[in-house]
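We now fix the convention by which a protein and its fold are recorded. The integers have meaning only within a learned vocabulary of local backbone shapes. A record is reproduced here so that you can trace the correspondence yourselves:
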Amino acid sequence: MCTAMNENGALGILHRFCSIEQQQQFGKSIKGIYGAAIGVCGDYLERYEAVAEAGATIICIDIACGHHILMQKAIEKINVSKYRDKIHLMAGNVATGDGFVWLAQQNVDSVRVGIGRPVAYAKQELTVEWVFLMLLQY
């Protein structure tokens, strides 16, 4: 999917549910800008370095509840690690204004908003305007 998105001018993010080696190989096969997802436990730092070395310029720390202490700890470690100055660090997912504000204060470059499959948001389009309206409530 990431390759198809890239070939059609969109930004794809490689999922993290494969081995580090597979994620690196997928990344090396993509021409152009792409991102790669990592988690917050286990091999996440090793995976971060491996995908950055393979050419990912966007790293997405991707967990179901981005408003979590493990997310904060992972961000702290990544912010002082190798490659940090060469990548765009995205973190998420959050679905509340409080979660968005908290994560935005964690020294990341962008926040990923939304949880679940896209079909779950058929009635609520997640736009920049929606995020600002959500923030105004807080």
Notes: The mean pLDDT is 85. The beta strands are 13-14, 35-38, 58-62, 88-94, 110-113. The first strand starts at residue 13 and ends at 14.
